[in-house]
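Running low. Invent one:
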Amino acid sequence: MPLLMLKDLPRYECLLEAAREFPDLDPSATEVFLHLLRAGDEAFRVVESHLAQHDITQGRFGVLMALWGNDRGGEVRPPLSPATLAERTGVTRATMTGLIDTLERDGLVRREPDPADRRMMTVKPTRQAVALLTRILPGHFQRMAALMLPLTESEREVLVSLLQKIANQASTLSPTGDGSAAPTAEVAARG
């Protein structure tokens, strides 16, 4: 589902006009923010449409990728618990339970007792999951490359740096995710 519910972004002149009514509206910041959301929505749409061809959702794909990544790199890592998967994929534990239930029903993961603590469960990908990822990932990576094709290597580096700045700033505005009020521009500028 798109984050930005606008088909067409407002022109900069419209933002300037709105700033007269709402003095806290920074037209330049709003324009960049709306373009960021639009680009994210379009990238999400491209990935979502590819995953749909393989009959898998973004959420289920994210879980499989977290599990797949845990088994890569040649080092032995402990299996992941549902709570750890929820943290790594940015969803609630309840949502993760639903995702794991669906993946397990489809034969893509299995729950097993944690060898260190039998009260806990771990989640492991099945061979079927690895085969599915092997089919999905080449096209997935091709789409990522195609999306970034208009950017030079140096533009990509700048974009990564800028996006990291935005992500870092977002984490300072509500570090607990509780929706608390954002600091004023003056406080943000000092931070």
Q: What stands out?
A: Residues 55-137 form a domain with the Arc Repressor Mutant, subunit A fold (CATH 1.10.10.10).
